[in-house]
Structure formats: structure tokens, C-alpha cells
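Teaching assistant's notes for section 4

Start the section by putting this record on the projector. Ask students to predict, before seeing the second block, whether Thioredoxin domain-containing protein will look compact or extended. Collect guesses on the board.
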Amino acid sequence: MVFAINEKAPMFTLADVHGEEFKLEEKIGKGWQLLVFFRGSWCPVCKEELQAWEEHRSFFEKNNVNITAISTDNPEDLRTMAEEYGLTFPVLVDEALKVLDDYGVFYHSSEAPYEDHGAHGEPAYFLLDEEGRFLYQHRQTNPFGRPGPKELRKTVKYIEDNLK
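Reveal the predicted structure now:
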């Protein structure tokens, strides 16, 4: 599934790693939303990337961009990882794969042609404006080659500078 730029994003409600309810609809109108889908707490590439998001968080906050991470991993492992790495942005749990499916994020199932740490969602990135419309999207089928915070800093600035 590919969304058109300026198309309204699907709204969702998920629990964060502390069991608190996160409603995307309540975040709309409070800055841009950057949704970062990652594989799981077991993924070394993901953990490195999440640390980088935390390190770059102040840039995104200054530019009115709110980071939210989402994984299909289990809540206990995600909570432990978020605490260990001192993540201050929301880390949400999508064990039922509802949001993953609504956003067309790739899912590495047991039917995949190669083994890769069992079933899990793959990396994806969605940047939404203050009205919940898509400004940017990126999906992939493996852990490598994903845009990191440095690349998305450039994307945010480019979009900000060129908004109509």
C-alpha cells in the first residue's frame, strides 16, 4: 500500500511500553508526527538506530516534529530495551499487527523465503503534517539501508522549506 502525499493517515490507538494509551488522533494538531516502525528489541541495527533517534531528538523537537516508535515485538522486551537505552519518545506495541497492516508495513512471516529471527515487522517511516496528512513515507523489507535521523533531518528541512 502506498499513500498519496497529502492523503490523510489512518488513525490508531496503541499501548506504549508502560501500558499507557497512545492515540494518534490526539497528537494531530500538535506538530508533525514521525512514525518510526522498527523490527524489535532483539535487532541490533534497530537498537542502534533508536539510540540515534534519541540523540537527534532535540533537532526534531525544535522543528516541531514528534517521534514515535512502533514495533510488533512483545511489550516486556520493548519496555526493557526502552529503559536500557533511555528512550524518551513513545515506544508503542503493535502485537496484533493492526497498525502495521493499516500502514502497509512489510511483515516478515514464517512464510518468508529466508529465516530472519522469526516473524516481525520491518522498518518503515511516515512523516505526517499537523492535520495528519502524509508528507513522507519509506518502507523496506530488511534491516539495512534505512534512512536514519541524519537523512530524515534533511527531509524535514526540505519539506519545511518547500511547503506550499
